[in-house]
Every structure is written in structure tokens, then in C-alpha cells.
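Hi F.,

I've been meaning to write this up properly since the lab meeting, where we talked about keeping a consistent format for the predictions we share between groups. The idea is simple: the sequence comes first, exactly as it goes in, then the C-alpha cells exactly as they come out, then a line or two of notes. No screenshots and no reformatting. I'm using this chain as the first example so we have something concrete to point to.
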Amino acid sequence: MLAIRTRRRKTVALATAAVLAALAAPSLTATSATATTTATTATTTSDYDSTYYKDAIGKTGDSLKSSLHTIISDQTKLSYSAVWDALKVTDQDPADSGNVILLYSGISRSKSLNGGGLGDWNREHVWAKSHGDFGTSTGPGTDIHHLRPEDVRVNGVRGNKDFDNGGSGFTDSGGSLTDSDSFEPRDAVKGDVARMIFYMAVRYEGGDGWADLEVNGSVDNGSSPYIGRLDVLKQWNDEDPPDAFEEHRNQVIYDEYQHNRNPFVDHPEWVEAIW
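Output, unedited:
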């Protein structure tokens, strides 16, 4: 919480400085106005601790996990076909509104190239479908907090492997690596992957007809409702904190689609508080 509050205070200070700069230097009005708008947008984002997360604040361990499960389980569920259009919005390339950013490869690809053919992008389940046997049924199989656009071939390379460090590169890897039993995403999205996995482990606890998903220390989980490796995923969460793209994605899912949040994007420190 201290880190988050400190970041917010710094953001407010930057916003104030931008406003003063705009007043003091009229010749730089356009540049200053842009900076002010950006800073103001950041500071007017709602603080969900006193509303959405109010029943979780101050808790740790199983108590925190249980509270977050209750909070984020209140969601609107999408059909698998509806996921296509949702991903075109949640993963839109900030530099090209006609494209989406592919998760593991980092490639910007036309939104229209969604499908199952070579050169297309499809719906990657970051928590692999077989790790819990939920397929594409409405529920964990359509939860866009862990579904992301990815090149069909790259998606096949990942398959249902657990996450770990190490391996070799491959065509269009974008820096991602793989070996016989694990997959390592590119550095820029390591934390994103970790926080999606932790979201799934909290959201799906076995009480709503789906498997109890859990993170463990293995890389050979197969079809069991587990994914590893826990220590590596925690490391990735620490080393790659949420960026603007990930935070915006979380907000869009909350505002426009599922109406629930990934708590670990808002509070990455809660990973350590639970695990």
C-alpha cells in the first residue's frame, strides 16, 4: 500500500507541476496541455480500495484470498464467440487502432486476422485449458482476464506448458523461450502472465462447478488443475510491475465486459500477501 500511495503522490505532484508550467510558458501551451491531460487522467482514476476492495483491505493469507474470490466472482460472463470482439478492444495496439498486440510475440497484427489459419491470431488461454479441463465453456474458458490474442503458430508452441525460466527461441518468439516442459514469455509481459495466473487461482476455487485451480512448484502438471512454477511466477510479478497497457486492459474489462477486476494488477503486492 505504501508504494501505491507514494506513486499516487508523485503523480499528483507531476500533474501540479505540469499545470504550473503551462501557466508560466504560454509558448509551450500545446505540449504542456498534453502533459497536463495525461497526468490528470492518471490522478482521476478511481481508488477502488474504499469501494470494490473494501472487504479485502488489511487482510493477508487465506483470508485475503477468500475475500478477493468473493469480490471478483461477481462478474458478467462472455460466450466464447464474444471473446473475439472483446479482445479487439482490450488488446488494441495503442499506436494503431486497427491492430491488436499479440501477447508472447509482441507483434502488432490486424484485428481482422482472427481465426485458426497460418498468419492469424487466436484466443490464447494463459491458464491452459487442459489444466482444469474447462475447455472453452462459459466460465474459466471464456474469462478474458486470462485470454489474450496470439499468433496461431506461437500459441501452438506454448501449448499447455507450465511457466518457467529457460529454453530456446523460435520463429516470431519476440524473445519468448520454450523447452520440452515449460514456456518463458518475453520480459515485457512476464508480470502480466503471472498476474493472470494468480487471478485464475483466486477466481476459480472449485465452488461453482469448475475445478479448484491452484499454482504450484511443478512444470509437469499435465491435465491436473495446477500450473507452475510458483516461485518463478512470483519473481516475474516483482520484476515486471503493471504498466499502462495492462492497467488500461484491466479497466476496460471492468467497465465494458466482465465488470470484475484482476486484483493483482491493482495490488501486485497481494501476490506475496497470499503466496
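Notes:
The chain has ten helices and ten strands.
The chain has a mean pLDDT of 87.

If this format works for you, I'll send the rest the same way.

G.
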